[in-house]
Amino acid sequence: MPKTRQEKAELVSALKDKFARAKAVVFARVSGYTMNEANELRSKAKAEGLDVMITKKTLLERAAKDAGIELNRDLLEGSILTAFGYDDEIAPARVVAKFAKDHASVEVSSGVLEGFIGEGVLFFGGPGAVEKAKLAGEIVTKRLDLIGVKPEELRVDYIGINALFHPHTAPPAAPLREVGLRVAGRTKARADAAKIAYEVYALPTNGPSGISAGAIREGVTEVLGYYHTFIPRERVKPTVAVVEVK
Questions:
Q1: Of the candidates 7, 11, 70, 218, which lies 20 to 30 Å from 200 by C-alpha distance?
Q2: What phi and psi values does residue 105 have, to the nearest 5 degrees?
């Protein structure tokens, strides 16, 4: 029976919450997926603290977008099973891949990991450049707290002072006449990462003077986790190819 508009809205809201809480999300294409297979995978997923479900791609995309995540529609072909992991970033991929190995009806498609990084960089020049950069960094952190952005990680670096060896850097021996401010934070939602970048971008209008015109950079980057794994030796078939180049 088709879902009502209210039921769809409730499902999108529930999916949005799962996307927002998840540390890792894995998608898999399913074909000929039986009820027995569904129950088996659900049981294995539950034992690992995962949620697995099959939903319409339109609702999945809407929920992900509401959570600040842009999905690649080209990778979402056919019927899509989604596995959400909340504690262990590797668990969804491990459970789904292991299940797919023994069940031809499931094929791992893609994963979404780690969240987003919002970053802004600008430079101060002239007398008091270091003090102005530090004041600007304080303004950004206080503004983020004021607007309710809570990054999982936040770094405020001063390029030319401690950007590489922070916090194990000695103070400069003489006053610096130019210094860069870099603020970067990792968030689960793209919208929050964009707010971090924007707060740095807005400093010329609400921050200290001395910002170098044209020396401002800001943006949002999606973070994809990269993990090593082992492949059973029997599944690796060594081959040698000899190609003659004329």
A1: 70
A2: -75, -10
